[in-house]
Structures
1.
Amino acid sequence: MIIPFATEIEALLGITILLSALYMQGQSFVDPTIRAILVQSFLLAALFAILAIQTGNIELFYLAVLTVIMRGITVPRIMLYQVRKFKHSLRETGTGQKIPAFMLIGIALIILGYALFKTILEPYIPNSQVSVALTLLFLGFLLIISRRNTLVQMTGYIEEENAILYAGALIAPTIPLLIEFAVVLDIFGVVIIGIILSAQRDVFHTLEPADLEQLRG
């Protein structure tokens, strides 16, 4: 089935996904970062659905549904519950003054990802959307290494998996579903471990001094 303006819609979704990743780099609060990965996962699922209709590949449709259930609903709800339960909605200590630098690095990574695609990958993979997946992988890695809050680092991990599934759906449409099933248990494992580590700060009163960070402005 041919969808009118499918290429333009896919490009728009790709740009919006990148903007959601850049938005996450600009947040020092946990709650909006989790909500951003929720939105990003829904956008990715919409992209998979369009590709499924365009190519007639039912596995991409299954992947879209699984992405919504796992990355769009289940995992974010667990993480948001953790925020409400243990009050991790305050700004992460130490990042407030570094947000502009993270944003600039994120923009630089977007440019770098596109440049790497044009110079190295384009002769072998002509689909320009792969550059979005490559850049998303870089931004997820930046989120992991630049933050100390466990829940925020988990969103970076999910973003990296989104990037891998994104690239897989474009390059080899039959592989992403296998990858998704393979990492489902990994995601739950990471979520459980992250919640334990994050809650431990409250149970043993070892939270970072978020109140001081709030006063610093």
Note: DSSP finds eight helices and no strands in the chain.
2.
Amino acid sequence: MAPIGIAVNVKPHVPEGHTLAVEADRLGVHSLWSPEAWGYDALTPLAYLAGQTKTAKLGTGIVQLGARTPALLAMSAMSMQALSGGRFILGMGASGPQVMEGWHGVRFAKPIARTRETIEIIRTVTRGDRLSHEGQIYPLPLPDSEGRAIRSTEQPVDVPIYLAALGPANLALTGELADGWIGNSFLPESGEVFFDPIRAAAERVGRSFKDLDLMVAVSAEFTDDVDGAARRHADGYAFTFGAMGSAKKNFYNDAFARQGFGEDIAEVQRLWLEGDREAAAARVPTEIGLKTNLVGTPDLIRERLALYRDAGVTTLRVSLAGEDVDAKLQTLGTLLDLARSLG
């Protein structure tokens, strides 16, 4: 069985982040991932790193669908493939109504249809076909317009597409159309909650589940104080459960509920929305902080790596603990050694 891949979250906007990215590339990580929330964009940092790194793949984690037209996203992806020598991965996701409607001014409507149509349009453009698309969200050329079905002026190029997905419908879409999955809120002990919909959809359209790169986000921290570290990571989930979504819809909460934490998460959300954030943090089960991350001694973390691998995860996208870049690189080096030892 192949060793599990290690990817790293990076922000090369400051010297420490740049050093981490370049050194992680030198150490042989699977890929480097640039975030996009409501600060920096995900693509520009990777264009910079394309000229600073040699072997690591470069992924957006994640571009927010609706913030750019599908054609512009395809153009950016093609530019990144050219600049990186074919190392680019387009990681994308629907985000949520708070960001899309509050930040981008785009209605968060029909996210599954928007995701499907965006993938279809990107594939059309990158194949070199004329862009004609009959869709609910993106009818192209626009009806009753002077628009024309245009073909890209550049050569066709393959662009791997990874979907950030948590709900069953979006997971099924991943299995049907995507090259990889970007996951979180994931416990390897209940991985089938995520993988069963992906596998079923892939098989339904004649694809192999094994061909997908299944990537899960974790934090990595080597420590002898396992309980204390797990508690700190659990506390951090209070914001996720209480604020990353509305009172009616929170994709993260739903994902944990499907893994058996429904009552706990509902109580955390209630406390947060009532304004008692300290109580909300204390109410998050320590088990969540422990089992969704790599926390503990090298032996314990090696055991967790094996659990992820045996559950079907192929790559872990890691946020590295450490007070400075040297400490983070030490964590990364040890983690890479442990992951390779599983091969």
Note: The mean pLDDT is 96.
3.
Amino acid sequence: MWDGIQKRRRARKGKAMLTETERRKIVVLDTSAFIAGFEPLLIHDPQYSVPEVRNELAPNSLAWTRFIAAVESGRLKIKVPREDYVQKIRASSKAVGDLRFLSVADRQVLSLALELRDTGYKPQIVTDDFSIQNVANQLGIKFASLTTLGIRYRFQWILYCPACHRRYPADYKTNHCSVCDTELKRKPLGKRRC
């Protein structure tokens, strides 16, 4: 009850009365957020994305227009994550087997969220991409889905050949088995409740 009264008082007094925790919340937007219809101009929390997200959006599409409008209005800040965070994400995504399923933009979004978290913010990634959600969950970064329910389990994936059953590391460069040339597949090695 007391918590509800404090929230109403803060709402009356405006942003000046936000708690320190509320001031530290940040939204990090993935390409799928813009495609799913996320409207950055309607959200008051600080919002960030990476330059590669723009490159994944079809020029002159509605999603591209949302992105450009948010950047030009100053509501969406574009930031390139530091290289050491990109390498941390590479290692984390390799550990769970999602490395080859993450685009450059996906890895940068995760890197930016991790960098912002390490500087004292509370990032939440807005994405419908299950691989991003899987790696974010492993790192303890919050995420929100727009058009899906999101993941319920965090999976650890392995690559394997369905013909000769040979296993490959998550960062294996080709899509075919080196022994029998069959197309590789992935399957969960283990799962953990989110």
Note: The mean pLDDT is 85.
4.
Amino acid sequence: MYCLIKPTNKSVRRLIGETSGRTVPERTGGEMSVLTLEGVSKHFGAIQALEEVSLTLGAGEVLGVMGDNGAGKSTLVKIIAGNYRPSEGRIFIAGEQKAFHRPIEARQSGIEIVYQDLALCDNLTAATNVFLGRELTRSFGPFRIMDYAAMNAAATKLFRELKSETRPRDLVRDMSGGQRQAVAIARTRLASARIVLMDEPTAAISVRQVAEVLNLIRELKRQQIAVILISHRMPDVFAVADRITVLRRGRKVADKPTSETTPEEITGLITGAIQAA
């Protein structure tokens, strides 16, 4: 069963190409952060999942977040995505303080998340998955029917922007891991996201598919979309991230430009063998 949403004329024009481009948050002097966390903490009863974590993220910046299991990575992402409310601390989006009570409020602020399981429907086409819940329709007498042609055309443009070979009419169940990631990322582009959160996007896929996903992240960066990349795969993080933040037992122990650190140092920080300066 489909949820049919009648799009506005403006949104249809944007999707099928009568308008072009996307709104990028303005940056004063090139320094304004699209996302700022100040002293964010989260506890569940007596369990302290995050403790006074602060970070910034600029437009077009890729931030790798690394840490062992239980370090607080998932909690951090869920707070930014609006799934959890922080126990303490503040969140700013493009300089404006926000208090998200639900994920829809984070999405309205331009935050999209690509979960590890991607949340795709295997029996539907790539284009239908991109528009799931936001389907384009057209009038047919007194009825409204799905406008598959418009959705296929819009999805084609999105895949082309992402430089992906994914085809809009292909069924998701027949796709590679890299193509599935392209579908999930195209869905965030449909929403004009300013910030994309990616949870282990290169886990359990082949080397070739990993390369496809990393190219998708580079393309988001080129389009001035900020990315937070949660990953255990050190080579992937070093390949695309501008900075690496390390979490350990709920605390931020390091925030380093990728060019000024090494996999060995990051591994030491994750395990505690190296103490943060």
Note: The radius of gyration is 19 Å.
